């Protein structure tokens, strides 16, 4: 169940994206903006995947009274981040993906990323470490 404040945060994120000049392949929200835990002082965690982007970028923007924390990434960078998470076993990014909500862009990219995040969480961090540690024949 979400609050009116969380719904407002979603609307603000969509408004922000509508002003973006980049070609957005996919964008999604994560974090407290998706839950009843969201409060007006909370950040709105927004991921934006662009078709072409020279380098990943994190920015913090105050937009319509909401603090947006935006991670700009290219498609190859987002897949590299998933690969790095699978090797390190760090659950942060898979957890964010597994509990995210699609905002804009290609409707097929987000479900794929979300499924990957869920699979990684279900397998657990040791599943990837054990596979990496097996000696080669």
Would you summarize the structure shown here?
The protein has helices at residues 4-19, 75-88, 92-98, 109-123, 125-133, and strands spanning 24-30, 43-50, 57-63, 66-74, 101-105. By secondary structure, the chain is an alpha+beta fold. A hairpin with a 2-residue loop joins strand 3 (57-63) and strand 4.
Question: How would you describe what is shown here?
Answer:
- This protein has 137 residues and is of the alpha+beta class.
- It contains 5 helices and 5 strands; from the N terminus they run H-E-E-E-E-H-H-E-H-H.
- It has a 5-stranded mixed beta sheet, with helices on both faces.
- It starts with a helix and ends with a helix.
- The relative contact order is 0.17.
- The C terminus is likely disordered.
Fold topology:
Layout: H1 4-19, E1 24-30, E2 43-50, E3 57-63, E4 66-74, H2 75-88, H3 92-98, E5 101-105, H4 109-123, H5 125-133
Parallel strand pairs: 2-4
Antiparallel strand pairs: 1-2, 1-5, 3-4
């Amino acid at each position: 169940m979400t609050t009116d404040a969380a719904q407002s945060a979603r609307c603000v994120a969509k408004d922000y994206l509508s002003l973006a000049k980049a070609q957005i392949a996919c964008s999604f929200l994560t974090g407290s903006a998706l839950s009843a835990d969201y409060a007006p002082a909370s950040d709105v965690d927004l991921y934006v995947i662009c078709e072409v982007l020279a380098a990943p970028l994190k920015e913090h923007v105050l937009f319509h009274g909401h603090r947006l924390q935006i991670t700009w990434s290219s498609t190859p960078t987002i897949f590299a981040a998933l690969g790095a998470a699978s090797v390190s076993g760090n659950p942060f990014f898979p957890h964010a993906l597994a509990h995210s909500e699609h905002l804009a862009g290609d409707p097929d990219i987000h479900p794929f990323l979300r499924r990957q995040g869920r699979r990684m969480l279900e397998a657990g961090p040791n599943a990837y470490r054990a596979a990496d540690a097996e000696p080669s024949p």
